């Protein structure tokens, strides 16, 4: 049944459709947007499904291409639609074949066609297995290996991990002369391979390969224009007689190698070698000997092996020079291209690199005990994150309690928080609940409102919320008291618990020892 070309094609179309739908469902599911792990799992699943769909599309293409002509044969056997008898005969023949193929399988349970999707889903490993502990589910990079290589290599220097993280993308700071060794190329290769593999694991739906290809094209353009940082001269440094003469050390001033060694310190020898374009490796002894060996020689007489890589000796002989230049440039370009690729990969992972730096800094400030506590907390942390990102169901718009969750409805009713009180003196500010309303009379907002009305606040004004009422009461009171202010009755006093009394009551209570 499934052997006919048309059926194969139909089946492939169906599978692709199902794969697309499942991928869509995975990406739009709630868990995919809630947490980092949910997002990662969904992305990995979608990537697996898309891969399977692409695989089926390839096979479908082959069916349509119809290399062995079976599709065309099948179509021909169905007739062209003109001859009804021929078409019917083909139809009944197919029915007969179908019946025969299902003979004796009546008890089989029909497959809903989605089983293979579940298989793909189950075949994907848990995302936590794909990442090392340091990588923390793709949140951070683990560059310890590159760091170890870098701090032990001649092109690098000893530095701690956080320093390395700060400078790992800065290839221009590495001296050019140290870049032409195979160790450096291997270092770049390993770094790039790690970054690409991390990118693929952490962001399976983004095509890091394409981004790198784009960068490679951009690199070609930059290289031609000489815009690559640190490679502006395209890796070719020509040395001629004039340069040798104007080098930092005047060797003719010394009569012996000992004299030279005494006059020039280690750095002096180094800089002299560099300005002449000579190799700078080896022990201080070897460097001295190398420098001495070129004393008084013409450029053409110096052994070519003594020159550093990337240095082209200008002998004003066009043919040999052209060759050397091309060779030097090709080598420099290869290194520069690798650097550019690594830099691009690091740029794509900028967020993760930042997270790594922060993480390392944070860890360096913690003690061992705190680190252990943190590791134990890590699992809780991911749960806490889930809660935080989860939307809280709050249809009644209940106020939030101290734990950030809405308070229970019965508590809400009990406190009368559904009752709104507005106060004109407070500029029509609303207070929710009787308690908040009562308390507000002694709070700053109401007191400020009263001061603006130039009415001294006394207990008599409690519960007065309209400006007109307050004014009338004030006029009334001032008439009655003749405007005098009775300290014992009108002054407000507060006890340590924040209760407000007039001075007389306060002193009475205090005398009785009730405060
Ligand atoms: Zn008020």
From TrEMBL:
Pfam families: SDE2_2C, SF3A3, SF3a60_Prp9_C
Keywords, comma-separated and alphabetical: Metal-binding, mRNA processing, mRNA splicing, Nucleus, Zinc, Zinc-finger
A Gene Ontology biological process term: mRNA splicing, via spliceosome
Record-linked InterPro entries: Matrin/U1-C_Znf_C2H2 (IPR000690), RNA_Proc_DNA_Dmg_Regulator (IPR051421), SDE2/SF3A3_SAP (IPR025086), SF3A3_dom (IPR031774), SF3a60/Prp9_C (IPR024598)
Any one of the GO CC terms: spliceosomal complex
Family: Belongs to the SF3A3 family.
The protein's name: Putative splicing factor 3a
Protein source organism: Ostreococcus tauri
């Amino acid at each position: 049944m499934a052997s006919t070309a048309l059926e194969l094609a139909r089946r492939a179309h169906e599978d692709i459709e199902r794969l697309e739908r499942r991928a869509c469902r995975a990406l739009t599911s709630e868990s995919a947007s809630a947490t980092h792990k949910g997002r990662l799992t969904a992305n990995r699943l979608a990537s697996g499904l898309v891969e399977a769909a692409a695989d089926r599309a390839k096979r479908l293409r082959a069916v349509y291409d119809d290399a062995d002509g079976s599709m065309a044969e099948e179509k021909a056997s169905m007739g062209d639609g003109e001859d009804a008898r021929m078409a019917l005969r083909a139809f009944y023949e197919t029915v007969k074949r179908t019946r025969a193929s299902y003979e004796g399988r009546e008890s089989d349970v029909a497959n809903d066609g989605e089983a293979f999707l579940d298989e793909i889903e189950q075949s994907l490993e848990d995302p936590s297995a794909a990442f090392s502990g340091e990588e923390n589910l793709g949140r951070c990079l683990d560059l310890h290996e590159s760091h170890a290589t870098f701090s032990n290599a001649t092109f690098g220097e000893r530095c701690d991990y956080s320093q390395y993280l700060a400078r790992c993308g800065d290839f221009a700071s590495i001296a050019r002369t140290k870049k032409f060794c195979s160790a450096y190329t291997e270092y770049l290769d390993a770094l790039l391979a790690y970054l690409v593999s991390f990118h693929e694991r952490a962001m399976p739906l983004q095509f890091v390969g394409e981004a790198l290809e784009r960068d490679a094209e951009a690199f070609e353009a930059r290289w031609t224009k000489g815009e690559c940082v640190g490679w502006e001269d395209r890796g070719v440094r020509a040395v001629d007689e004039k340069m040798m003469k104007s080098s930092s050390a005047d060797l003719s001033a010394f009569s012996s190698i000992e004299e030279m060694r005494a006059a020039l310190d280690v750095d002096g020898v180094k800089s002299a070698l560099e300005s002449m374009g000579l190799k700078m490796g080896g022990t201080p002894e070897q460097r001295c000997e190398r420098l001495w060996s070129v004393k008084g020689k013409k450029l053409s007489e110096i052994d070519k092996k003594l020159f550093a890589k990337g240095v082209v000796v200008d002998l004003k002989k066009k043919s040999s020079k052209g060759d050397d230049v091309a060779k030097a440039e090709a080598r420099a370009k290869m290194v520069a291209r690798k650097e550019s690729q690594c830099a691009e990969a690091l740029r794509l992972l900028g967020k993760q690199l930042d997270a790594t730096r922060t993480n390392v800094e944070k860890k360096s400030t913690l003690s061992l005990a705190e680190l252990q506590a943190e590791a134990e907390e890590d699992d809780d942390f991911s749960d806490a994150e889930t809660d935080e990102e989860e939307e809280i169901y709050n249809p009644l718009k209940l106020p939030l309690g101290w734990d950030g969750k809405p308070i229970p409805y019965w508590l809400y009713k009990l406190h009368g928080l559904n009752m709104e009180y507005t106060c004109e003196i407070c500029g029509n500010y609303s207070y929710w609940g009787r308690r908040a309303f009562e308390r507000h009379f002694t709070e700053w907002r109401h007191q400020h409102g009263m001061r603006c009305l130039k009415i001294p606040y006394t207990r008599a004004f409690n519960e007065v919320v309209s400006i007109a009422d307050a004014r009338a009461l004030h006029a009334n009171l001032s008439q009655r008291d003749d405007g005098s202010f009775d300290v014992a009755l009108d002054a407000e006093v507060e006890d340590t618990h924040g209760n407000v009394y007039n001075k007389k009551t306060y002193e009475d209570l205090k005398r009785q020892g009730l405060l």
